[in-house]
Design brief:
Length: 326
């Protein structure tokens, strides 16, 4: 009996000690879990569906997206961008250099700042990109449309690839379309589908908003893509994108060289400026050939600063503080 009691006492002691340890572990685990919840992004290693809000604010307008087609249209795009990891990371890095050029031009022309996201979805902020339909540059102008809105396109010059000049051309289009529709969302849809098509479908389908139209899928998705990428850019950590200042591409200092006469050999010109031919082409993607024929016009060629071209020190410039974790 005494032995049994002794065993029971030992057992009780062991159980008591175990409970104390278990309580401590639970407390530690709980604290750790809480810490993880506080520090980790909302999107975890497990693939989860991002929340769809009841409304979003784009172009200065709050838009209800609870209707089934709008809810599902937004859901498709926010899910796509959330898990398009490598490409979206690259968009943030490029935007650190490109948005400082685009934003002041939009503002000066009375265009809502959110239209910079149109450039993001059009070209991924790559001024040299060309589509299968031969649309070119940051704003993806066709040659005829680019010329219509003031861009020069010749065998040696393609200003569709000039970020600043093509942004100004895009502003002209956007203002013209807004004068026609009075709705920035209809303007955005027309940028992809064309004013003729959007106007025709609004008339044929007896509707006033592009959201209510039956359109080809690419055009129908367009406004939702702008809504979604804006949310990711304004809340990157929420959607699982963790960046620091050093991760972003730095704007490199340049000087302008005005050129009024032809340059028969841009490689030779580059050597005279103390840079490589490749540097001249990268900083001036509008230069189409190995030579430049000015045809009586004056062009400004950007020459990168020799010292600033190196990442000897980590980038410290952050265009939008929301993009990085502190």
């Amino acid at each position: 009996m005494c032995r049994i009691r002794l065993l029971n006492k030992n057992t009780v002691s062991c159980i008591a000690a175990g409970l104390v340890c278990l309580s401590a572990c639970i407390a530690i685990s709980s604290n750790d879990a809480e810490k993880v919840r506080e520090e980790r992004p909302l999107v975890t290693g497990v693939t989860t569906s991002p929340d769809v809000p009841s409304s979003v604010t784009v172009f200065g307008e709050q838009t209800d997206i609870t209707r089934y087609n709008m809810h599902e249209g937004y859901d498709r795009e926010i899910s796509s961008f959330t898990y398009f990891h490598s490409t979206v990371l690259l968009l943030f890095k490029r935007a650190n250099c490109v948005f400082p050029i685009i934003e002041p031009i939009l503002a000066a022309n009375g265009i809502p700042d959110d239209f910079k996201y149109l450039a993001v979805i059009e070209s991924h902020l790559d001024p040299r990109v060309s589509s299968p339909a031969r649309a070119v540059g940051t704003w993806q102008f066709l040659e005829s449309t680019g010329k219509q809105y003031g861009l020069t396109v010749t065998p040696t010059v393609d200003e569709r690839c000039d970020v600043a000049k093509s942004t100004l051309a895009a502003c002209k289009y956007l203002k013209e379309a807004y004068h026609k529709y009075g709705s920035w969302f209809n303007v955005a849809a027309s940028y992809n589908g064309g004013m003729g098509r959007i106007s025709g479908e609004l008339n044929k389908q007896q509707e006033e908003s592009a959201f209510d139209l039956w359109l080809v899928q690419e055009t129908a998705r367009y406004p939702y893509r702008i809504m979604a990428i804006k949310q990711v850019f304004e809340n990157p950590y929420k959607y699982g994108f963790v960046l620091h200042a050093k991760d972003l591409y730095k704007p490199i200092k340049t000087r302008e060289v005005s050129v009024s006469g032809d340059i028969p050999d841009l490689a030779e010109f580059a050597k005279e400026q103390g840079v490589t031919y490749a540097d001249v082409k990268r900083f001036n993607p509008w230069l189409r050939d190995r030579k430049l024929n000015t045809l009586g016009k004056t062009y400004k060629i950007l020459i990168p600063d020799a010292e600033d071209m190196y990442y000897k020190k980590a980038n410290t410039y952050v265009h939008d503080s929301r993009w990085i974790v502190k």
